[in-house]
Amino acid sequence: MSSGVTLEAHTGQPTPVELDEWAEYLASAVRRGFFGDLGVGESADDWTALMRQWWATNPYVDDTTTVALLLRSDGRVVGFHGLIPVEYSLNGDPLPTLMATTFVVDPEFRGHSMKVFRRVAKLGARNQIVDGSATEDMRAVLDAAGWSFAAGEVSRSVVVQPRGLVARLRSIALIAARWAVRPDAVSLPPGTRWVTGPGHDDDTQAAADDVVRPPTERRFVEWIMSNGAHPRVYVGLADAQGGRLGHAVLEYRMRSLGTCVVRAVDGAGTDGSVSLSDLLMAAAANPVAAGLPAGAAVLRWSELDGPGEGAAADDTRRIYYRLPAALDDRPREARATESDDVWF
Fold first, then answer.
1. What ranges in the chain are assigned the alpha helix state H?
2. pLDDT of the chain along its 344 residues, tens only?
3. In whole angstroms, what is the distance from residue 252 CA to residue 226 CA?
């Protein structure tokens, strides 16, 4: 029976007991096939570790932050929706933002899903809400509710400048197999220098141009650096005065045939003089100076074409968002990395 279903909102840091309960529910949801073919998360320990990244080390969580919404029936969890707080910016001022993640409800209780969605919409009165990993069912709900989205993902894979004979032979094979291409030539501003840690360059003053932008501040970058299941490195460009021109957080792992693949999980140009693509193309061409890991063979990242255009974007990646009503007319910078799927 679905009577007596209640909605709970949890604010502030979850307790260990709460994390254990939520993790066991999410692991059981994976085992029961409610997420489709995730391929991960059948162990509650996996979810506990992930949720600690979402909240325990998150510098944006305080006692008033809503981090999770739960549906309960007879005291047991039958639905879950996570919310990861960050701060976007508008003209240098913080814009509280909640990243929607991991929305799942037991099939027999899905008639109560709108309780969760309405609460998320209510939180949107004072927060930007971003959903970069919406399922097909959720996409239909967000489309019907009039959420905006950016779409049109373009993926790039370039060969990292090889170091040594074996690496050169491997790069030729990767290009021949169309697994990657050579990096384009990039002209960087005079005086540009590479930096290999977020503490080595200064945060640049945000432009007062009325554009909503994802976070680039040091505490955000350091938090993203500390997350993930694989090693991460920081690649940045600074001007002659130490101001940040752009940065990327890169995650790397060994793939088939011992190939080290490096993937951007966060990054952006800062002042418009250097794009993320420029930065990464230049890093692939000069990996030692940029601080790429030894043995890196392929550098991968994705970009978005721009605002969604209805049916033309139906088969592409979508980053959904809803701004508070007072900011609804503001333009917004979107990134392909704007998703907890990528960050974590």
1. 16-31, 44-51, 113-123, 136-144, 165-176, 218-225, 276-285, 287-290, 340-343
2. 445 899 999 999 999 999 999 999 999 999 998 876 655 678 999 999 999 999 999 999 999 999 999 999 999 999 999 999 999 999 989 999 999 999 999 999 999 999 999 999 999 999 999 999 888 888 888 999 999 998 888 899 999 998 787 788 888 988 998 889 999 999 999 999 999 888 766 666 666 788 999 998 899 999 999 998 899 999 999 998 888 899 999 999 988 777 899 999 999 888 778 899 999 999 999 999 999 998 999 999 998 875 554 444 456 788 999 999 999 889 998 888 888 878 88
3. 14
Q: How far apart are the first and last CA of the chain?
A: 36
pTM recorded for the entire structure: 0.90
DSSP state of 68: E
Alpha-carbon separation of residue 65 from 50, 118, 323, 340 (angstroms): 18, 17, 17, 17
Which is nearest to 231 in space by CA: 202, 208, 265? 265
Supply the angle between the helices 44-51 and 16-31 in degrees, to the nearest 10: 130
**Residue-by-residue DSSP string for 123-166:** HTTTSEEEESS--HHHHHHHHHTT-EEEEEEEEEEEEPPP-SHH
Residue with tokens 């100076």: 289
Question: Which element (helix H / strand E) includes 95?
Answer: strand 93-105
Helices of type H across 2-91: 16-31, 44-51
Which residues lie across from 71 on neighbouring strands?
A: 7, 79
Chain centre to alpha carbon of residue 207: 23
